[in-house]
Amino acid sequence: MHTMVNTTNDKYLIDAITKEQNRLNLSDRKLSIKMGVTHSLWSQIKSGKKSFGREILAGICRNLPDLKTVVISYLEGNGKNEH
């Protein structure tokens, strides 16, 4: 289930996804489709109202493969600003 977030780890992953979004020149809507979630859910995650669930993390790994190591780092709890 999605929960409230504001952790450094969540912000780290959101920042990495946003950088990849900019690199690929994707709108929020196209990015959310690529990740396999609704535009509304992605907006809620970005604003800290919801957290990353298993499905979105799998979608990121599957469809944005350059972010796999960032997702692994997120799951390990290592919110570093390296990406």
Describe the structure.
The protein is mainly α and 83 residues long. The protein has one domain: 434 Repressor (Amino-terminal Domain). The protein has helices at 8-24, 28-35, 39-46, 54-63, 68-76. The termini are far apart. The mean pLDDT is 87.
Tally the structural domains: 1
Uncertain residue segments: none
CATH superfamily: lambda repressor-like DNA-binding domains
Order of secondary-structure elements: HHHHH
Average of pLDDT: 87
Defining key terms:
single chain; 83 residues; mainly alpha; 434 Repressor (Amino-terminal Domain); 5 helices; globular
Could you give a short description of this structure?
The chain is mostly helical and 83 residues long. It has helices at 8-24, 28-35, 39-46, 54-63, 68-76.
Layout of secondary structure:
Elements: H1 8-24, H2 28-35, H3 39-46, H4 54-63, H5 68-76
Helix pairs in contact: 2-3
